[in-house]
Amino acid sequence: MAKTTVGILETRRDAKLRKLSKLGPVLQGSICRIGVKCGNPSCRCAGGEKHASNVLTRKERGKTKSVYVPSGMLEEAKKWTGEFRKAKKLLKEISDMGEKIMRMHVATERAKKRNLEGDRRKDRRK
Q: Dihedrals φ, ψ of 35, to 5°?
């Protein structure tokens, strides 16, 4: 198995960044189907059979926020929330690669420093 280098990680990271730039519109949250009452006393919902409605829910400062999703936009909203999940996953992968690059850089710099110190000791002995 080939050893992963900083150059390989940077190439992979750049590929993920290109993928991220090709995503479409994003929308944070989940789409839920709920039952609602319309308020008309002679409607079927007054007797318990509620109307179906779609809402987008998301957390904001620990509280759930909901937004009505019009039926004409339901498929589009589902696509947007899917794009958000893809973007979130790609951002995590990009961040993880950045951390690996940074760790490899630190290890490389330490090794260089040790090698320089070893060379200096050899020079002093001569």
A: -100, 135
Q: Name the β-bridge partners of 63.
A: 60
Q: Are 33 and 53 in contact (CB under 8 A)?
A: yes
Nearest to 34 by CA among 63, 49, 48, 55: 55
Residue 104: which of 16, 14, 3 has the closest Cα? 3
CA atoms within 13 A on the CB side of 20: 15
59 bridge partner residues: 64
What is residue 88's three-state secondary structure?
A: helix
Which of these, 85, 43, 51, lies nearest to 68 by C-alpha position? 51
pLDDT digits (tens, 9 = 90+) for 44-73: 888 888 999 999 999 999 999 999 999 999
Q: Are 58 and 30 in contact (CB under 8 A)?
A: yes
Question: What does the pLDDT look like over 76-99, one tens digit per residue?
Answer: 999 999 999 999 999 999 999 999
- Separation between Cα atoms, residue 96 and residue 102, nearest integer Å: 10
